[in-house]
């Protein structure tokens, strides 16, 4: 913003600051809203979902900031709509999603698209999905990757092994870490098979699972039971740590992991992979969605199959030197992908939408 340009007036829905901070989407809004408030005149208004009413604000904003995953407010000017992904439009995932959940998100997305001046999206893969799903002009899409705070997510903070040992109520063992929801598309079942095969090959590592539930269903008990079950042929190897966990505990768990794995069939970004890399964890991800885009050459990218994941983990776990080198590369990449960088991209998009709406 030039010295003579007035401070941009931005209004967002009042529910955004109250979003859960323990999931990926909630952390995105937490980190971005507090940074945006330092660069723009950011206000919050109670949203009205009736087309003949407008949210009450002290003065008309230059631009609205809208969460594309919820029904939009009745905005009265240019708007930037944020989509983390549109996974309900990915063909191979549709049958895994609860129909009512997908329908709810689809309705909200269509409503948001009708008012979007510009669209913010965190990866080129997710941007292509938006274009394919809604026919959105690619020129209206701003691709701004998410970030991490490398001062908080860094190696050597806390004792992750002691946390795991305390939960398991036994001596500490080396472990592979999974962090995420239990949605079927997260592909945890395949990682479990890979870990069982590694145990059969003589690797002593536990599978530590941090996460809970599934946001597309009210009763995820079946998913909870499946996640906590013993590995086939390898009893006593699963350590289940239910969410939410405090951030400092998560950092400790990531920093002490011998490997971190994101086996998802699809991710619109993959924030936990970036956070684990910032903590120095050697990271293995699938080629699902944007994950290769996030890790680049600082992580191992494989097909989301049990055999491919097993081989990638075996190579890392058998070579501490290779794991250390990969962990260092991940940390270096994470240091270039900060929330401040993301906020700068969001502010640029907000200014452009305001200019286009004049």
Order of helices and strands: EHEEEHHEHEHEHEHEHEHEHEHHH
Mean pLDDT across the residues is 89
| Shape call | globular
Largest sheet: 6 strands, parallel
Rg (C-alpha, Å): 21 Å
Unreliable stretches (pLDDT < 50, length at least 5) are 49-57
Side by side, the strands of the main sheet go 2-1-3-4-5-6
The number of E-state strands comes to 12
Helix fraction bin:
25-40%
Tell me the span between the first and last alpha carbons: 17 Å
Strand content: 5-15%
Specify the structural class: alpha/beta
Number of helices: 13
Topology:
Elements (H helix, E strand, L loop, with lengths): L8 E5 L10 H13 L4 E5 L17 E5 L11 E4 L8 H4 L4 H17 L2 E4 L2 H11 L6 E3 L16 H9 L6 E5 L8 H13 L5 E5 L10 H8 L9 E4 L5 H10 L2 E4 L8 H8 L4 E4 L4 H5 L4 E3 L3 H12 L2 H15 L4 H18 L2
Helix pairs in contact: 1-13, 5-8, 6-11, 9-12
Describe the structure.
The chain has helices at residues 24-36, 91-94, 99-115, 124-134, 160-168, 188-200, 221-228, 247-256, 271-278, 291-295, 306-317, 320-334, 339-356, and strands spanning 9-13, 41-45, 63-67, 79-82, 118-121, 141-143, 175-179, 206-210, 238-241, 259-262, 283-286, 300-302. By secondary structure, the chain is α/β, with parallel strands linked by helices. It has a six-stranded parallel β-sheet, sandwiched between helices. It has a six-stranded parallel β-sheet with strand order 9-8-7-10-11-12, with helices on both faces. Strand 5 (118-121), helix 4 (124-134) and strand 6 form a beta-alpha-beta unit. Helix 1 crosses helix 13 and helix 5 packs across helix 8 (247-256).
């Amino acid at each position: 913003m030039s010295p003579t340009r007035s401070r941009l007036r931005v209004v967002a829905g009042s529910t955004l600051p109250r979003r859960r901070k323990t999931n990926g989407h909630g952390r995105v809004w937490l980190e971005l809203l507090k940074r945006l408030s330092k660069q723009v005149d950011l206000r919050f208004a109670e949203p009205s979902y009736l087309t003949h009413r407008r949210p009450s604000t002290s003065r008309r904003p230059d631009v609205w900031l809208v969460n594309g995953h919820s029904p939009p407010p009745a905005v009265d000017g240019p708007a930037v709509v944020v989509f983390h992904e549109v996974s309900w439009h990915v063909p191979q995932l549709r049958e895994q999603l609860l129909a009512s959940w997908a329908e709810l998100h689809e309705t909200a997305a269509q409503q948001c698209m009708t008012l979007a001046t510009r669209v913010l999206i965190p990866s080129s893969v997710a941007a292509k999905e938006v274009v394919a799903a809604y026919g959105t002009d690619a020129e209206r899409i701003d691709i701004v990757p998410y970030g991490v705070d490398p001062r908080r997510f860094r190696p050597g903070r806390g004792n992750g092994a002691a946390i795991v040992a305390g939960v398991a109520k036994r001596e500490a063992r080396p472990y592979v870490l999974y962090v995420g929801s239990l949605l079927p598309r997260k592909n945890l079942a395949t990682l479990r098979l890979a870990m069982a095969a590694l145990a059969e090959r003589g690797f002593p590592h536990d599978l530590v699972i941090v996460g809970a539930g599934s946001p597309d269903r009210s009763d995820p008990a079946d998913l909870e039971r499946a996640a906590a079950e013993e590995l086939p042929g390898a009893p006593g190897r699963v350590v289940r740590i239910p969410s939410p966990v405090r951030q400092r505990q998560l950092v400790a768990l990531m920093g002490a992991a011998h490997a971190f794995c994101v086996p998802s069939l699809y991710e619109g970004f993959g924030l936990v992979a970036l956070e684990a890399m910032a903590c120095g964890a050697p990271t293995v991800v699938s080629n699902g969605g944007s994950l290769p885009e996030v890790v680049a050459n600082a992580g191992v990218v494989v097909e989301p199959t049990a055999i491919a994941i097993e081989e990638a983990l075996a190579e890392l776990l058998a070579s501490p030197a290779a794991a250390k080198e990969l962990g260092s590369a991940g940390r270096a990449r994470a240091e270039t992908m900060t929330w401040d960088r993301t906020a700068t991209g969001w502010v640029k998009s907000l200014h452009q939408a305001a200019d286009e709406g004049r």
